[in-house]
Each structure stands twice: as structure tokens, then as C-alpha cells.
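Q: Is it fine to ask for two folds in a single conversation?
A: Yes, each is treated on its own. Send the first.
Q: Here.
A: Result:
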Amino acid sequence: MDNQQIIVRVATPDDKVYSKIITDEMESSAMARGTGIAKRSPEYIEEKIDEGKAVIALTKEGKWVGFCYIETWSHGEYVANSGLIVVPEFRKSGVAKAIKNRIFHLSREKYPEAKLFGLTTGLAVMKINSDLGYEPVTYSELTQDEAFWAGCKSCVNYEILMSKDRKNCMCTAMLYDPKDHYEPEETKEFFKENAKGFERLLRLKQWKLLRPFMKKDKDKDSGSSKFKSIFFNLFHF
């Protein structure tokens, strides 16, 4: 990423003009991967912008590049940096990391006592989170706010989540607890040393979670299963 060409900042009301293109990209990205971002409406994105709880990336010419927003749960005890999206042509350029860094610090400014958490299906986002001081955790350490889990209903993997009583799913949970956390250099080094192991674990986890649904689909003799699509995207790239 050329830092002179990309501006990453807190979104302002003027940025609401991008709300539709942001949600369209979120949806198409989730469909292409066969996995997850819970669907959001342009109105929801605009609400986050009005609340000062969003970060946007733009070129100097005003072209939209990326976005992320803050959600709070359990009366502000938990904060999630959600909906991270970067347009395809700017992926793997450092934009996602810059957005995550800015939204993380914005969250710490607004909610200094809150536990920050995230759910991700990707190793790249795990690395970014580790660089900030997040640690992998079990789902039991996340907010149990029903409103948060209800937001997963629009995710393609919701059936898997519910079949596991919300204790496991395709996503990996990560947490930053301001009262009990390792320093970013420690979590960064830990991830670096164990990256290959994390990748194998992600694939094993995804395979084990998908198998029952693929078998169910085979029994139904369906040729267009969403779970076949997920499997293809996970293991063929």
C-alpha cells in the first residue's frame, strides 16, 4: 500500500454516500468465499457512521477502498470491530491492517474498559489481530448477548453454529482484554511461531464441522449445496 495515496480515517456523515457500495461488497465477498460476514443494510452502516463508530479508507481522489465499524454488546462490556471489508484490487496491500489498527485504537478510545473481540475465518485477519494483542479464545469467553448471536442468522454458517450450541463454528474467536492481556509483541511472536499450526487447525476444524452437513446433502442428492460451495472455497485456491 502506498500510504501517500490511501487515507484511513474515522468516517464522517459525508461518507454515507458509500453505504450501499460497502454493503454490496460485503455481501459479494461473503458469497465468493462461501463463508461469513453477517449481512448488514446501508441504513445500519449509516447509523454507525453517524455514531462516530466507523473507519473508512479512501484514495485521494475519493474512491472507496475499505471499511470497518464498532459494535458494543452486554452494555458496553464487549466491543467488536466488525464488517472489515477491502475492495478486491486493494487486498494484500496493507489496507486491511491499517483499517484494523485505526478501528482498534478508536475502540480503545471510546471504550477503554471493554473487552475487544472478533470472529474470523481467515488466517490473515488472525495475524492482524495477533499483531494488536488479541489472543485465540473459546466462544464461551465472548459476549453471550442474544442480540450479538442473532446477527449471525444471515451468515451462511448459522446452521453449523446452532448445531454446536453456539460453542463452535467456522470462525475463530479472538479476544483483547485490557485487564488481562499479553503485549502485542508477545502475541505477534506467538502467531509467527505457530502460523502453520494455526492453518492446519483451521482446516481441520472446518473439515470436521462441514462433514455432517456434506453427508446430509449427499443423502438428499442435492447438486447445489451451499456446503459444497463452502468446501470448494476452503480447499481449492
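Q: Second one now.
A: Result:
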Amino acid sequence: MPAKVVQAKARVDAVRQLTPQIFEVDLRMEDPAEFGFDAGQWVSVPFGPKTVRTYSLASTPSSRRAITLCADVAPGGIGSRWFKSLKAGDVVEFKGPTGGFVLNRADSRRPLFVAEEIGVVPIRSILWDCVQTGFGRPSALIYWCRDPSWLAYDQEFRLLSRRYPGFTYTPVVREPTAGWAGEKGEPEEVVDRSVRSVQGLVAYVSGGGDMINRVRQVLMAKGLDRKSVRWEKFW
């Protein structure tokens, strides 16, 4: 049953800079004392009567008393400046959880996750939730960034792929640096090359609207029906 949407208050425990432009914030719940959500959901933070910003939950539902939010602060707007300025002890008020970009565990098909930059955050939550709950269905992640410095959770995903043979991880960059050993190009190009059959496949695609459309078109050209491509649009 979906978690109830609530007005919540928490206090900052820690702030981490994962990449030059991507930050994580750990929040300790105060009111309510526990915050329930589904992996893949997000919360909204108000900045005025008609101004809110949304942040995906990077943590998993197993932790209800402390949650982690993650954000790309590169846009430099009101939400970016606020997120980047957070420090231990600050109070954060938000509303949530919201969003339907969650894994359907009743679906027997193998999931293909495709993420563009900060769009990887809800997928990270989903993947770790699967690990923690013993959901061992084979899955794959194609994670695209403009260059390797944006691959916020790269080492985590590499570790998961080594520990769980059923999980395949493919990092992709547009602008490889010296020594880059992964794929290069655009996300839809790698999807086209790596997905040989869409039989028994369901896709979860997260990032910019243009990328989502391009990946969806590639998968549909291979025979996947449109409703089997689920998506979370960040911009």
C-alpha cells in the first residue's frame, strides 16, 4: 500500500559532495519520527507560496528514521543554492513521498534501467532496495553522463555488478577522459547495441525528456510496447 503523503520536518545530519556538482544530504526525521516511502519516490521542498523544488530519495525504505536526498546543483537556481548551502543542524521542511517511478515487483519481466546523470538517483534507491530485500531478478543498468566526473554512484554500481552476477552495469560517457574503459556515445546508442531482444523486458528510464524519448523510440523499434517503458522526467 503506498505511503501516505505528509508534511514533514527533519534535521541535517551530514552533507557530502559526490561530484563537483552533485550533493547528498542526510536528514534525521523529527516530525514524524519515521518517514515511509517506496524506492524511486521523491519529496518537495517549498520556497514560497508558488515555488517548490523536488528531490529524489537516494536512500531506501529500510531506513525510516533517516533519509538521504541527492541533487544536481549545477543549474544554480533557488533550489540549487539552498541545497548547496545546507549544513549539519539545519532544519528542512518538506512534503512527500510522491511519484510513481517504482519497481513493480509483481511484474515477472526483467528490468532494464537507463539513467541520465542526476536521473540515476531514484534508480539507485530501487537497486539497493532490491539488494536489501533479496529481490534477485536479473536486471541491467545503463548509466549515461557527459563525462566520467558526473558518474556519482559509479563505484557502487561496479561493486553490485561484481557481487551479483545477475546485475549488469554499463557506464556510458559522451566525452571520455584518458584511460576511460567504458562505453562512449549517447544512451540510446548503447541501448540499441546492447538490447538484442525485448522479449520479457520492461524499461525504467530516468533523466531528461529528450533522452527518455530517444530511448523509448529505440526500444519500440525493437518491438517493445510503449506502456512497457516507464519513465521519470527530471527536466
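Q: Anything structural to flag on that second result?
A: Two points. Helices lie at 78-85, 120-133, 154-163, 187-194, 209-221. Residues 187 and 193 are 10 Å apart (CA to CA).
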